[in-house]
Design goal:
531 residues; alpha+beta; 6-stranded antiparallel beta sheet; 13 helices; 17 strands
């Protein structure tokens, strides 16, 4: 059974034949049942019609016998009807209900539906003289039906079998055999050489011929694809050799990360940047990239590849401590393929130092080494942003201006004046905390930002110490000593104003108030009251 099922599954001709035979059988059963039914109805109608003809034949004799009440004549009519093989029983009943004659051809048979005919008087057509009841012989009728059905069924069966075999032969000859031949030739075809199929002689213009044309077109596309693939493979080999040469000799570090954030491939430049051993087999002993760049505790999840989130490029700089000096590495990570990242690393230490030096120079006063106006503006913006985030904290802005600094320049020269400026700047820098900021805005004007000073008394302590050190004479060439005086104005951000820029103006106002008060002292900003 399993062998037959396998053949049906693998043989188109056998499967087609089986399907056609099943269809023919099903149609044969339906048509045979319909033919038998129609033939049975036809035989029944024919026998009924024949009985009616028999009754018509004996009707005249029956009229006379019934009119005269002649039982002998009525019995002869009955016997005459029973002599026909389609009649099973006959009964002639007078109009008063008495039976004039009766008889049965087969006492054991069961009569079918009887046929009744009224017999009228030969002289008075409207007067019924008797009734003839004839019962057909159903067994005989069934025998006729059976014979007719057998003949029709046999003829129909032979016709259906012949049609089925012809259809099977046509399918095998014109469909399955050409397809089988094409299948064998296709299995032996060397498509990569451009060899093509030939359509069967009788199928060049039909669907099988179109199938051959489509297969040949596919072979042409395959040959072109193979040629293109060979060309691309050669180009790829050339590109791989070129890439390998660049990979091994370029100064930039090139590396690949797997989905877990481990380094799986790295060129010599990358190994030098991160002090990795040259012979390390990264495929067998991968290194966590996070550990190389010093990202926290070296957890790898920070560099794991999330394919569902989609690939994107990341760029940042990391600082590496190599013992003698700090080095800065610029890193770029970009998606390479599913579960892989490609990275490039550059040593940007010199560029970073140059940028830091340039930035520091741009924000530093070249004479005193303190901040300049640009640096002060930047630091003031930072303090303003900090105050907006934490408005409960106060900050002090102090403006300092030398007293009679022009006399020092005129008397001792600008060189001594510059030394005096450096002296005052050094004192201020020595008194400030790390989070505070000191800047020279130009000439003899200094400014100090004290962060986190909530009380004016805290500012006064710093200024007392500053003036105490400033009172000591400043020695210049020879035995010359100079005493420097400074007028100081203070404005409190958070107490006097919430605006840092306005605090700068308020500290200037307070500084001029200190000058009016006799110089070499300080004054806090006091709002002017109108009387």
């Amino acid at each position: 059974m399993s062998r037959l099922l396998l053949l049906l599954h693998t043989r188109l001709a056998l499967r087609t034949t089986a399907i056609i035979l099943m269809i023919v059988t099903l149609l044969g059963v339906v048509f045979l049942a319909l033919a038998v039914y129609l033939r049975a109805e036809s035989v029944q109608r024919e026998q009924q019609s024949r009985i009616q003809e028999l009754l018509t034949t004996v009707e005249r004799t029956a009229q006379i016998g019934c009119f005269l009440g002649d039982r002998h004549l009525a019995q002869e009519v009955t016997d005459g009807l029973l002599s026909n093989n389609i009649v099973s029983a006959v009964s002639i009943d007078a109009s008063d209900g008495t039976t004039l004659a009766s008889g049965r051809a087969d006492p054991e048979g069961e009569p079918a539906t009887s046929v009744v005919r009224e017999i009228f008087s030969p002289f008075e057509p409207e007067t019924s003289v008797c009734r003839i009841t004839v019962a057909p012989d159903q067994d005989f009728i069934d025998k006729l039906v059976s014979q007719a059905s057998t003949f029709i069924g046999g003829a129909l069966l032979l016709q259906l079998v012949g049609i089925g075999l012809c259809v099977v032969l046509v399918v095998v000859r014109f469909v399955t055999r050409p397809i089988t031949g094409l299948s064998h030739r296709l299995s032996e075809l060397e498509a990569e050489t451009g060899q093509q199929l030939q359509a069967p002689r009788g199928n060049r213009d039909d669907e099988i011929g179109q199938l051959v044309i489509s297969v040949n077109a596919m072979i042409d596309n395959l040959v072109q694809s193979l040629g293109e693939e060979r060309r691309l493979r050669l180009e790829r080999e050339v590109e791989e050799r070129r890439y390998r040469a660049i990979f091994d000799n370029v100064e930039a570090g090139i590396f690949e990360l797997d989905s877990a954030g481990f380094v799986r491939s790295a060129n010599p430049a990358f190994r030098r940047l991160f002090d990795m051993a040259t012979g390390t087999d990264l495929e067998r002993h991968p290194v966590a990239f996070a550990a190389l760049v010093g990202d926290g505790d070296g957890a790898t999840h920070a560099f794991a590849v999330d394919d569902e989130a989609g690939g994107y490029e990341r760029q940042w700089e990391v600082a590496l401590d190599s013992g003698e000096r700090q080095r800065w590495i610029s890193l770029i990570l970009s998606p390479l393929e599913t579960g892989r990242l490609q990275g490039v690393a550059h040593d940007v230490t010199e560029r970073k130092r140059a940028a830091d030096a340039a930035e520091k120079m741009a924000m530093t006063d070249p004479l005193t080494g303190l901040g300049n106006r640009r640096g002060f503006d930047h630091r003031l913006a930072v303090m303003a942003r900090h105050h907006r985030l934490y408005p409960e904290r106060c900050h002090a802005l102090i403006t300092l201006d030398f007293d009679h600094f022009k006399q020092i320049n005129d008397t001792y020269g600008h060189q001594v004046g510059d030394r005096a400026l450096c002296h005052v700047g050094g004192i201020l820098a020595g008194l400030m905390r790390q989070r505070d900021y000191v800047a020279r805005l130009g000439g003899d004007e200094f400014v100090v930002l004290l962060e986190g000073c909530d009380q004016r008394s805290d500012v006064e302590v710093v200024l007392e110490r500053f003036l105490d050190r400033l009172r000591k004479p400043f020695e210049v060439e020879g035995d010359i000593e100079i005493v420097i005086g400074v007028s100081i104005g203070i404005a409190m951000v958070g107490l006097d104003t919430e605006d840092a820029e306005q605090a700068v103006r308020f500290s200037d106002i307070a500084m001029y108030a200190a000058k009016r008060a006799g110089r070499n002292t300080w004054r806090f900003y006091e709002p002017v009251t109108q009387s």
